[in-house]
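User: Study the fold:
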Amino acid sequence: MTDKFIDEETKYKRLERLNEKNREACLKSNERFVGKVLKVLVEGKTEKDGKITLNSRADNNKIVHFEDNTKNIGDFVNVKLYSNNKVKVPVVKMVAVQENQAGKFVYKLDENNIPKLVYIKTSGQTGDCWIVSEGVVKGDRIVTDGIQKVIPGQPITIVSPDEMQKIKKNEMTDEDKE
């Protein structure tokens, strides 16, 4: 089949689908490296808006970009990898993650505020959060406070941070009375 039989719109849509599939495959392939340290060889520099970005390659042939003004082309550097994909990779506060013999889990809320125990797999950490590779998706509602009081299957009441402050203040006042 030659190009003269395929209209431009169809070509464009097919290319977009192909590119999206490629992005998904690359993301999945790279997720296993998030949170890990790789030794890389600096191969080049790019300067934009006063920031120097180093272009490097790991021994597994992965390309890694990072900012550093002190390294030079030809240097070997240990680099901890983080995800720059803010849309598809969920993160969960470490305080919300529990662990038992079966593995790490969180309490995920459904639309009726009913918590369900959900096992997760993590692929690294960033700050005070776990990067989650399986079990929850971005946008899921996870219980982060009062976990010790959660009973799976029993509805919970969600309170705002201001309401939580008042509750904690009242609890301290009640304890002082006793």
